[in-house]
Amino acid sequence: MKIAILPGDGIGPEIMAEAVKVLQALDLRFEMETAPVGGAAYEASGHPLPEATLRLAQQADAILFGAVGDWKYDKLERHLRPEQAILGLRKHLGLFANFRPAICYEQLVGASSLKPELVAGLDILIIRELTGDIYFGQPRGRRSAPDGAFAGAEEAFDTMRYTRPEIERIARVAFEAARKRGKKVTSVDKANVLETFQFWKDVVTEVHQDYPDVTLEHMYVDNAAMQLVKAPKNFDVLVTGNMFGDILSDEASMLTGSIGMLPSASLNDKGQGLYEPSHGSAPDIAGKGIANPLATILSAAMMLRFSLAQPAAAERIEAAVKQVLAQGLRTADIWSEGTTRVGTREMGDAVIKALQGV
Ligand code: IPM
Ligand code: MG
């Protein structure tokens, strides 16, 4: 088994170092190979996703990804910006199914901006379609407006589109996932306005015929944004397109009190996966040794479960993380009165120590 390690930018290298330490402490046999990605790769070789990095990712059974991006690259042409690395990996590897769990850990209920009773015990799963929609739809670009009230004016445009097979396969992923949990899927659309999402709703409804044991509900995206802060525990599995999923998954992650705790997985139809923390590169705290490595460590656990067929090892890591939280150890982002503030490295060390006992 081969794991591609892509640390990236900002806090990426620091949090990745801890996840790699944890993986090494497991005593399993796999090969890890590191390659630059994002701004770091642009600095080293002039491109955010160099050929060699892409090749490594394609050959690996799984990819552990840190984070990419920094304000300092905002003025680069779009195709050279760090974000293109993650978009390129998703597209080239066909990583269409993005799992973003939002789980509120018992010990962190107080860190949520919502009332404790709304989030205590929260465990929802956002499944975001990741290779279609307005993110990748062609045509896109700038031109002179061909019609409308401002015909002839400078204009920019993107294209929202979904094919039937793209919707069918992500719907199946969502229904299968729901079967293993609360047996409810909420499909989020904007069918009242958009042709693309009326089609989405129709196709999801058709696929649902094969899953009579799962409840399907449809919800407009604006209402879903509201329900997520009003009564988040009413959701089980939420499935939606690339754009809405981007927005709603950030919203959902905040309910849990710390985006620094949330892992994610992006899978293709071969079971190959890219695993990354849900948070970004946080350039403002990079290099300070204070970033929370737990989302990356938990992403490594997801990787062991979904791509490397090591569910027992995944459970050990998850149990170890719960244990360090129970011990009161907290990085700055989740620290509160009465708990012990630790840095990135100490947190990683504590997880390894806890691993010995579980
Ligand atoms: C995410 C990020 C990316 C996205 C960016 C970095 C391109 O926000 O993974 O949610 O929009 O998909
Ligand atoms: Mg996002």
Automatic annotation (TrEMBL):
Q: Where is this site: Important for catalysis?
A: 135, 190
Might you report a single GO cellular component term?
Answer: cytosol
Q: Where is the Isopropylmalate dehydrogenase-like domain?
A: 2-351
Family annotation (Pfam families): Iso_dh
- SMART domains hit by this protein: Iso_dh
Query: What SUPFAM superfamilies does the record point to?
Result: Isocitrate/Isopropylmalate dehydrogenase-like
Q: Which key words are in the record?
A: Amino-acid biosynthesis, Branched-chain amino acid biosynthesis, Cytoplasm, Leucine biosynthesis, Magnesium, Manganese, Metal-binding, NAD, Oxidoreductase
Sites where the protein binds Mg(2+): 222, 246, 250
EC main class here is oxidoreductase
The record's comment on cofactor binding reads: Binds 1 Mg(2+) or Mn(2+) ion per subunit.
EC number(s) in its UniProt entry?
Answer: 1.1.1.85
Reactions that this protein is recorded to catalyse: (2R,3S)-3-isopropylmalate + NAD(+) = 4-methyl-2-oxopentanoate + CO2 + NADH
The protein's GO terms of the molecular function aspect are:
3-isopropylmalate dehydrogenase activity; magnesium ion binding; NAD binding
Q: Which residues bind NAD(+)?
A: 280-292
One GO biological process from the UniProt record?
L-leucine biosynthetic process
Task: Give the pathway.
Answer: Amino-acid biosynthesis; L-leucine biosynthesis; L-leucine from 3-methyl-2-oxobutanoate: step 3/4
By sequence similarity, the record places it as follows: Belongs to the isocitrate and isopropylmalate dehydrogenases family. LeuB type 1 subfamily.
Function per UniProt: Catalyzes the oxidation of 3-carboxy-2-hydroxy-4-methylpentanoate (3-isopropylmalate) to 3-carboxy-4-methyl-2-oxopentanoate. The product decarboxylates to 4-methyl-2 oxopentanoate.
PANTHER family found in the cross-reference section: 3-ISOPROPYLMALATE DEHYDROGENASE (PTHR42979:SF1)
Subunit structure and binding partners: Homodimer.
Q: What is this protein called?
A: 3-isopropylmalate dehydrogenase
